[in-house]
Amino acid sequence: MNAAPDSRPASAVKRQYGEGGLRKGKGRSFASRLVSSFKREKSLYLLALPGIAFFIVFKYVPMWGIVIAFQDYSPFLGIKESPWVGWQHFERFFANPDFLLLFRNTLAINLLNLALFFPLPILIALLLNELKEGLYKRFIQSILYVPHFLSWVIIAGLTFLLFAKGEGVINDMLESAGAQRMDVLTDPDSFWLMLTLQSIWKEAGWGTIVFLAAIAGVDPERYEAARMDGAGRLGMMWHVTLPAIRGVIVILLILRLGDLMDVGFEQIFLMYNGAVSQVAEVFDTYVYRVGIQRGQFSYSTAIGLFKSVIGLALVLLTNKLAKKFGEEGVF
Amino acid sequence: MKNIRSNFIHTTGYSALAALLAITIVLAGCSSTSGGNAQEGNQAAAGEAVNNSKNASEGAANEAKPEEPLELSIMTVTPSTPPAADDNVIKRAIEQATNSKMTIQWVSNNIYDDKLNITLASGEIPDLIMINDPFGSTFRTMASQGAFWDITDYVKDYPNLTGGIPDKAWESSKMADGRNYGIPRPRSVKEDSFFIIRKDWLDKLGLQQPTTTEELYQVMKAFVEQDPDGNGQKDTTALASYVSPSDASNSIGGLGPALGAIEASFTGVNGNWKWDEQQQKLVYTALLPEVRHSLEYLTNAYKEGLLPEDLLSLKLSQARDLFKGNKAGIIVDKTGTMKLIYASDLKKVVPTFKFTDFYPLTKINGYSPKGIGFNGLLAIPKSVPEEKLKRILGLVDTWMNKEVNDLQLYGLEGVHYKVENGKKVVDSDKLKQDNGSDFNQIVNVLRDDTLLDKAESQEEIDAILYAKKVEDERDATSIPNISAGLYSPSADLAGPDLDKRIQDLKAKIILGREPLSAWDDFVAKLGSDANLAKISQELTEAYLTREGAATQ
């Protein structure tokens, strides 16, 4: 992380690092620094203790469960007794002809999502920002937020009611307009697009909240200055609002890329059927099918671990890239 | 001086704040956990209290029975929402009759597979757990590792377990080592899902009951084109069917019950493996030319609208709705579902519909399936000590006594039924409300008498008698699933993927998204598939071992 210039008064620096400030601490080992810093800042550490304990107990301790990815885990034998098999499950996974298919589908669905879905909340937020504060704006916002609170089960049901070939409303309309009924639910070509449209329908409105908050933080003087320089509404949007929320956009993009290997399981699971399986099977559905339904816990843990490693790598990579381009990044 | 004091206040202030925060958080944590415990504790205490009072009363009434009630946890499936509550009257009555205190976890049948696998994986297994597919890999592995009691040598001490459950059920629920790791829930082998057709539709269109796939096709076509519901619109389909991904591995040809029955009628094989006398081995049915024929048949049927258009998106309940809602005239199910699932609803839509119009077909192409003789089993984990194991077996044994079993079938006198002319007249709504039949999901006894006994009209009696007649006719020639329970380690690994590939390809062909020649290409490749050859070999060995053991 870039060392920000320390703007605290000297006394504060002294209190934190003791006489001699930063320089003195550098030569000592990490442990001794930790001990001395602990001695000095007992109360602060005490304050942090519940938080640290929480993370250790609920996040880091369970994480040891991933060792079963390297075992032939049996629930009855437990982690201690289950035989160790090393990389066998990973080898099996990578040798599986479906691996590339899963990889392709997961990536395709997410990239499509990134390309079509990600810019939309920004766009909507910009549009909303142009509305005058008042009843109308709040009404529009509420309408946009509502779909977020519907579960995927309901949305899958709605999609079925609208698009089903037999009873779908849209197909009924098409037919009465003299067109052919279409079967989009079992069409592999339109499956990814259908998923993306569903995500947009459900989450695009909700996604505006972060951007709206960021926009609200823009200094009004900048708009004033822009107006003085002769910028119109579009000009202000382009030259003031967008640059002001660029940091937020980048952070969200980084976080989004970290999830590149995750696809909303529920959504796909509900839309899944035999005819589209070639394009619908992703890591998450595969893990469910193999791990939960077939009880191959080690194998599915190995897949999950692989996914996480890729996700972590992507976050680190994009974070680094973002910094290179002068943005803040997430850490 | 001032500095020191302020510093002092400063630090102590912080410490106090920190300590306060820490304490609150710890307390909050404690209170939430103890809250949970307290709740459980309360429940336990409540249970205890009931037990104690019951004990007290029992103790007073019957001093010869000083044994503490058996406390046990049970997990099983339920089709009802909401499931029976802990203080359900029927549950209480059964507890009293069996001297037990049961904590029952009812799990919806839609998610039972998942829930079961997760429960098994968690290692905290209820004392009595319903295993719906004992040949699934999780249970099989755990049983072979010794996670469950081998009850083979214990059951002989319990007359109802040996006498009340047919040998066939014990036999077919054995694991690969020839031992029983659970009490099978017996089902009649005569009762298996097969075609049921609307007789009123047949009569209206002047059609005979179909006996071949060809005739079935003609009937289906008539059901679609000749307006059997008489509303002047061409808005009916014929076969209420669906193909769900979850059926890929556990239905015939991976096509779900309805289309699977059609494929089986073509192949004459129940299951996915056919014994080939010439080659002396089990052959995968997908390789048979009959499967191609059935696929062609289904493709045409779909094209002509004889199957629901949204075949792949429908679920079991939606397919049932098609039949219940007067939109489809044929369904594949067990005859016992008549009143419970279909007829009552259908009567509301079509007032002229009679129970006897729910018309089971005897055979198609001479084929009808034979049931496996049991539906899941009750297993007891090794974490239960031997003494308790014996008591649990005893509990099931007592539960199978007619008086106890009657509690769930007829309910309580005065509450769910009254006796008129020596016959129990059941208030079926009240009994359903109190989840009477849910307890069949724990202990079920094969009893011929009850359906007829509980029938409320002559029409219903006629329908039941006809169904029985059909089942008896089927029984003479019905085909058992010879591959059920055979174990192949390779199938455990490669099977699911293969099943899924087959289901997907068939689905695409039926929908017309792939040509039939795609199937030929697939079969050509499958014929030389190393995995399949290995599965076939392993299953054949297992089959020969079992048959050999059976004839000795």
Automatic annotation (TrEMBL), chain A:
Pfam families to which the protein is assigned, alphabetical: BPD_transp_1
Renumbered to this chain, region (Disordered) spans: 1-26
Q: Which residues cross the membrane?
A: 44-70, 107-131, 143-164, 191-215, 236-255, 297-317
Stretches assigned to the ABC transmembrane type-1 domain: 103-318
Give the InterPro entries listed for this entry. MetI-like (IPR000515), MetI-like_sf (IPR035906)
Membrane topology listed for this record: Multi-pass membrane protein
Taking the record's annotation, the residue ranges forming a coiled coil are none
**SUPFAM superfamilies attached to this UniProt entry:** MetI-like
| Gene Ontology CC, one term | plasma membrane
Q: What does the UniProt entry say about where the protein is found? A: Cell membrane; Membrane
What protein name does the entry list? Putative aldouronate transport system permease protein
Native species: Paenibacillus phyllosphaerae
Automatic annotation (TrEMBL), chain B:
* Signal peptide positions on this chain: 1-28
**Coiled-coil segments, which residues?**
none
Bias category Low complexity: which stretches? Answer: 36-49
Which PROSITE patterns did the record assign?
PROKAR_LIPOPROTEIN (PS51257)
User: What keyword terms does UniProt attach to this protein?
Assistant: Signal
Establish whether keyword Signal is in the entry: yes
Renumbered residue ranges of the record's region Disordered: 36-70
Q: Which domain of life is it from?
A: Bacteria
The reply on keyword Signal is yes
Protein name as it appears in the record: Putative aldouronate transport system substrate-binding protein
Q: What is the protein's species of origin? A: Paenibacillus phyllosphaerae
